[in-house]
Design brief:
With 110 residues, the chain is α+β, with helices and mostly antiparallel strands. 23% of the residues lie in helices and 26% in strands. The strands form two sheets. A three-stranded mixed β-sheet has the order 1-5-4. Strands 3-2-6 form a three-stranded antiparallel β-sheet. The longest helix has 9 residues, at 73-81.
Length: 110
Amino acid sequence: MLRLVLIFALLSCTLSAHAFHTTEVPPLVDVPVWSMATLNEDGSTNFNILTYATPVAIRPDRLYCLGLFKKTKSFENFCRERKCVLLLLTDKHIPYVRLLGGESGKDIDK
């Protein structure tokens, strides 16, 4: 698995909750959409939807800055494992966006 070190998520793991503005519901936007896969504690896979992911470095490690909601299983998994897989989605993936991003893996198995 390609190891991605994600700056925003790493910072969010260690900074105070008051350092960022939080929202209860992700906003609807017309931008590229990414799928983020992380590993649950039992080794199963969890997926999330991101609308902000941009590379900030490629050497010596690939570093990305992400917009990731803190109240998700993906955030919890990433803080624990420090790795994930990102996939830039296309129009054929539209049916999966609501499934993968509509609720947290803390509430449903996805």
